[in-house]
């Protein structure tokens, strides 16, 4: 078998995961595309009193009230004022569906699992680690988010 043939066989053996990449605060993040239900632009959330600061409010999604989470605030970044340019990525984890407000959607990536690296162990202010893996694509560091950690516990959610 030629070197090119071996490389193709190796690529077929490697398990790939498909990710939706997007920008938050000028940084690259991604989530497993299997959890993405849709991508919406231009939706303005209706705020709710006494909700956590990272919950922008709710929108009506075909008759369902959907909480919208400002991902930059959830990740502890400074958040710009909501604009018409923000995009909402509707994700489902288990029986929970939430909209994640991001700056822009970038691409769909197919990444071999062996190219993903665990994040370094670093002390955190809280016990949650939002990033499960890191990978480098075209010189950009892509952070792969753990949606189970990102979504607030059910008793914290605005509803």
How is this structure best described in words?
With 159 residues, the chain is mainly β. The protein has a single domain, classed as OB fold (Dihydrolipoamide Acetyltransferase, E2P) (Beta Barrel), CATH 2.40.50. It has helices at 3-13, 71-74, 147-150, and strands spanning 16-24, 27-32, 36-41, 55-61, 64-70, 87-93, 96-102, 104-112, 131-137, 140-145. The model has no long low-confidence stretch (mean pLDDT 83).
Quick description:
The chain is mainly β and 159 residues long. The protein is built from three helices and ten strands.
Task: For this entry, give a set of tags.
5-stranded mixed beta sheet, mainly beta, 10 strands, globular, OB fold (Dihydrolipoamide Acetyltransferase, E2P), 159 residues
Mean pLDDT: 83
- Kindly provide the radius of gyration, computed on alpha-carbon positions and rounded to a whole number of angstroms: 17 Å
Q: Which residues form runs of ≥5 with pLDDT under 50?
A: none
Total helical segments: 3
Major beta-sheet overview: 5 strands, mixed
Helix content: 10-25%
Structural domains: how many: 1
Taken in chain order, the helices and strands follow as HEEEEEHEEEEEH
CATH architecture: Beta Barrel
Instruction: Tally the beta strands.
Output: 10
Would you tell me which CATH topology applies?
OB fold (Dihydrolipoamide Acetyltransferase, E2P)
Q: What is the top-level CATH class? A: Mainly Beta
CATH superfamily placement: CheA-289, Domain 4
C-alpha end-to-end distance: 59 Å
């Amino acid at each position: 078998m030629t070197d090119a043939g071996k490389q193709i066989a190796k690529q077929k053996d490697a398990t790939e995961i498909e990710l939706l990449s997007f920008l938050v605060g000028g940084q690259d993040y991604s989530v497993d595309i299997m959890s993405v239900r849709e991508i919406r632009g231009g939706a303005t959330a209706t705020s709710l009193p006494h909700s956590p600061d990272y919950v922008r409010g709710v929108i009506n999604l075909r008759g369902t009230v959907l909480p919208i989470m400002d991902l930059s605030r959830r990740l502890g970044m400074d958040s710009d004022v909501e604009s018409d340019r923000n995009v909402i990525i509707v994700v489902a984890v288990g029986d929970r569906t939430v909209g994640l407000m991001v700056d822009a959607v970038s691409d769909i990536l197919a990444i071999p699992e062996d190219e993903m690296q665990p994040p370094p162990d670093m002390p955190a202010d809280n016990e949650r680690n939002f990033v499960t893996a890191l990978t480098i694509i075209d010189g950009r560091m892509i952070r792969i988010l753990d949606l189970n950690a990102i979504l607030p516990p059910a008793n914290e959610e605005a509803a």
